[in-house]
Amino acid sequence: TMLVAGPEMPAAQPKRPRISVCLPLDYGAAARILAARAGGPMTETLRTQVGIVGAGPAGLMLSHLLHLEGIDSIIIENRNRDYIEGRIRAGLIEQWARDLLIDTGVGERMQREGLSHDGIHFCFDGALHHINFRELVGKGVTIYGQQEVIKDLVAKRLADGGQILFEVDDV
Fold first, then answer.
1. Non-local CB neighbours of 157 within 8 Å, separated by 6+ positions
2. Which is deepest, 3, 27, 113, 143, by most CB within 10 Å?
3. What is the value of pTM for the model shown?
């Protein structure tokens, strides 16, 4: 399978060179078995404006933001969906990231289930010291697992018709 990513060229500018990236994709053992049963390798060309390697928070959010601007993208990920949605990771969401998730329509569950914190406590010399983020910088943090952000972004991309290819080898 080939993923072709590059900008669409308007007909009015034929002299401008077309920039494309072609990546061979291997869908893993299942694809090889299906291809063998069909009598040969599976070949397919997927066209998109932007190819994104990795269905982590950055790749998924980038795809979502591109979609909001009307730009096509395909995400390719070497792990399966259960793995990326279940892998336990950090869960402290800074204010700017929280705002971005909410402003772009992906933060509803985080607003409902996340825990808002206005600061932290440090303990030294036997005393507890509170650092109030809201008083100091006017911002807080939200405790919400990164795997939950991943679930929300995957669900949104798929609901919006986005393409995420899981278990892609040789990326």
1. 60, 63, 64, 67, 75, 164
2. 3
3. 0.74
